[in-house]
Structures are given as structure tokens and as C-alpha cells.
Amino acid sequence: MDIQTVVNTYFILLLVGAVICFFIGFGLKKKFNSHKIGFYTTFILSLIILVFLIQWFKTASAELFIGTLPWLFNQAIAIILYPIYLAFTWFVLKRTNIKKF
């Protein structure tokens, strides 16, 4: 497996994990009618997935002898996108909680 395949797999798994965590949080938000429960669930699950994927990427990139800068760049992108994902999730869950008359 070359480095581009590892990086692509890493970001695809991050995206899939984010979507799955969002829908789990959205389902719990609908069930308990509380956007905070949905957000906290999404936050905890996505943080666990992020930590596991960072560890996976570390071991997969170590096998390919990737340099420090590309490894750091890919981790930084994931960590920078994570608060943006959380803000998006918060606003979507909060917006769907508004009752329409």
C-alpha cells in the first residue's frame, strides 16, 4: 500500500465516522428531544473514532516510512476540521430542535 492510499483511506474513514456519529446523535436527539444529548453523544463518539484513527494512521504511516512533515500535515488537517465538524453538528442539532408553530 502506498502513502496516497493510506492518506485517502484515513480521510475516508474520518468522513464515514463523522457521518455515522452525526446520525447516531441525531437519532438520540429525536428520541429524547434534546439537542444537547445528541451533541454530547456525537462529540464523545467522534472523539473516540478520531483517536483510534490517529493511532491507526500512525502505525500505517510508520510502516511506509513517511516523513514527519506529511504525517503532521495530515494530522493537523484532521484536528483543524474536527472543531468545524463539531460546530456544524451543534448548529444543525440546535436548528432542528426549534418547534414550528
From TrEMBL:
The lineage's top-level taxon is Bacteria
Q: Where is the chain membrane-spanning?
A: 6-25, 37-57, 69-93
Q: Which UniProt keywords apply?
A: Membrane, Transmembrane, Transmembrane helix
Q: What is this protein called?
A: Uncharacterized protein
Say which species the protein is native to: [Bacillus] enclensis
